[in-house]
Each structure stands twice: as C-alpha cells, then as structure tokens.
Amino acid sequence: MQEVLDKISSIIDTYEGGEWKSKDSLREMLRELTSSNYHLTKFNIEAYQEHNTVQFKHKGSVASGKILADEKVPELRMIRKIMEAVDHVIWSMRSELSIIKKES
User: Fold this and answer.
1) pLDDT for residue 83 is more than 90
2) Which residues, at least 6 apart from 68, have a Cβ–Cβ distance to it below 8 Å?
3) Is residue 8 situated within a structural domain?
4) Long-range contacts (CB closer than 8 Å, 24 or more residues apart) made by 29-33
5) Which of 26, 34, 63, 103 has the greatest number of CB atoms lying within 10 Å of its CB?
6) How many domains does the chain have?
7) Are 11 and 78 in contact (CB under 8 A)?
8) 54 inside domain
C-alpha cells in the first residue's frame, strides 16, 4: 500500500507544483492517478472486510464492536479520507484538461 500512496503523493505534488509541461503529460498523470486510486480501492475493500470481521466477532454491543473495530483497523478511515482527497484532485485535473481543450 505504501508504494501506491507514494505514487499518489508524487503525482499530486507534480500537479500542485505546476510542473506538468503539456496536456499530454497532464493526461498521463490523470491516468496514473486514477489507476492508483483503483489500487487504493482494493486496499480499502480489504480493510473494510477486516473491520467488519472484528466488529461482528465482538461479543458485546454493536456500538462497542464498532469502537473496537475502529481501533483495530484505523487504516479504513485513513484510506477513505485519502480516496476522497484523490477524487478531488482527479476532478481538478479533468477540469484543467477541459479548460485546455476549450482554449485550443
């Protein structure tokens, strides 16, 4: 998972810094970012399944099971937040490409 997160960070840093040179490089970055988001989704599914396992194997109340699962599988929330942020960057890149297309 760390490899995927590093790739996402690198792409976002490049985009944020305005270091992309052309619409082709921006398109390539968008493709890489969306592919990385897909791979991150696989980790999210694994974390979700682990979270559910912990929650439903807990013998106490549903609320205490959820609290326990949140403590045992903190990466579920982290991955969701990262995916949400990546979605915003993807949207921004698409908008930028649309603007470039209209200006051409």
Assistant:
1) yes
2) 54, 55, 58, 60
3) no
4) 29/93, 30/90, 30/93, 30/94, 30/97, 32/7, 33/8, 33/86, 33/89, 33/90, 33/93
5) 26
6) 1
7) no
8) yes
What is the residue range of 32's domain? 26-103
Residue 4 lies in a domain: no
Residue type at position 64: S
| Average of per-residue pLDDT across 66-89 | 95
Instruction: Decide if 47 is inside a domain.
Output: yes
User: What is the pLDDT, as a whole number, of residue 73?
Assistant: 95
Distance of CA 18 to the CA centre of its chain: 21
pLDDT, tens digit, 9 for 90 and up, residues 20-51 = 888 999 999 999 999 999 999 999 999 999 99
Contact criterion met (CB below 8 Å) for 57 and 68: no
To the question of pTM greater than 0.85 for the whole model, the response is: no
Q: Return the exposure string of 14-29: e unless at least 16 CB atoms fall within 10 Å of the residue's CB, then b.
A: ebeeeebeeeeebeeb
